[in-house]
Amino acid sequence: MRRTLTLIPAHNEAANLPAVVAEIRERRPDLDILVVDDGSTDDTSQVLDRLGVRWLGWPQRRGVGCAVRAGLRYGARLGFDVIVRLDADGQHDAGAISRLLARLHEDDVDAVMGSRYADSYPGPAMVKRALASVVSMASRRRVTDATSGFWALGPRAVALLAAHHPRGYPEPELHLLLSRNGLRVAEVPVRSRARLSGRSTLTLLRLLAAGARVLLAVVIVPLRERVEP
Amino acid sequence: MTSRIQIVAILGSVIFLLLVLELVRRRRLAEEYSALWIVAALMLLVASIRRDLIDRTAAWLGIYYGPAVLLLGLVVAVSAVLLWMSVVLSRQQSQIDHLIEESAILSAELREQRQSGADYVGAGPKRPRA
């Protein structure tokens, strides 16, 4: 029997966390829940105490990549074999966790990504499509959603990413890292919702920095030495 | 014949070298980062004593104006130091990241242990929770 942990990186999501946790508990009461509080300045820590979930955190913001890596390290240390990562803003439907896990348990893959754009790209799609094309080309696998934060990670992926999860704005680089190290990734179509409340922390400046970082990763990651998970 | 500028250059190089050594002595500059500065100070000292070396290097490189070699050397040395400092910063950032995450995980484990009391088995790579 595989032990599964749900990992939710959060920065100033006190308003959304209760609903997100409640939905996971309703859909998958068998899963442990860990929230990584990435230097929130709102009431996140009080909310976490009330929710009764596992949580860890630090006083200053370090980025979602660091938050996910710390959560993976925590999960691996406590003996969790599978870790499901989803966002704290409520955009991911917890009902899809079972589909991701079912696909992961088919045993021919090491990680499963919930793709919001498996069927079509909503709205102005040029940037998303271009990014997906670049990441597909660099990872030599068809990637339809290069920025998805909805993943189910199996034991090999957990072991690899607990030590080497990219920092910063990590999702596109994650595809490259998994591909470079020979881990098998599958996609499952998922429904995306608007965030429940608040605003995204992604500003234009951060978006530009993330784009530059992705371009660098496309060149560098395939040239890096492979890491044994 | 020794010119005034040569004396000033030699004095400056010696003072720079002594400054670096003093910083190491006071533990304000770690030994591993002092090597580059000591080498730089010694090179300055050699160039101050043997000014003909600059002219010879300029001739060998095909540079007509001798002092331009000094500027070139300065630019190369400063760039090398900056790159090295970036490597050091990156390494330290990685170490700090690791420590913050370890500290956060240990705090979480301690909190869970306190909450669960004696029933909590604990955590660690070789003793997962039952």
Describe the structure.
Chain A is α/β, with parallel strands linked by helices and 229 residues long. Chain A has one domain (4-223): Alpha-Beta Complex (Spore Coat Polysaccharide Biosynthesis Protein SpsA, Chain A), CATH 3.90.550.10. Chain A is built from eight helices and seven strands; from the N terminus they run βαβαβαβαβαβααβα. Chain A has helices spanning 17-27, 44-51, 64-77, 97-104, 126-139, 155-164, 171-180, 204-220, and strands spanning 4-10, 32-38, 54-58, 82-85, 111-115, 151-153, 185-189. Chain A has a seven-stranded mixed β-sheet, with helices on both faces. In chain A, β2, α2 and β3 (54-58) form a beta-alpha-beta unit. In chain A, α3 (64-77) packs across α6 (155-164) and α5 (126-139) packs parallel to α7 (171-180). The mean pLDDT of chain A is 88. Chain B is mainly α. Chain B has two domains: 1-49, no CATH class; 65-116. Chain B is 78% helix and 0% strand. Chain B has four helices and no strands. In chain B, α2 crosses α3 and α3 packs across α4 (67-116). Chain B is elongated and about 80 Å long. Chain B starts with a helix and ends in a 14-residue tail after the last helix. The model of chain B is unreliable at 120-130 (pLDDT under 50). The chains are: A alpha/beta (229), B mainly alpha (130).
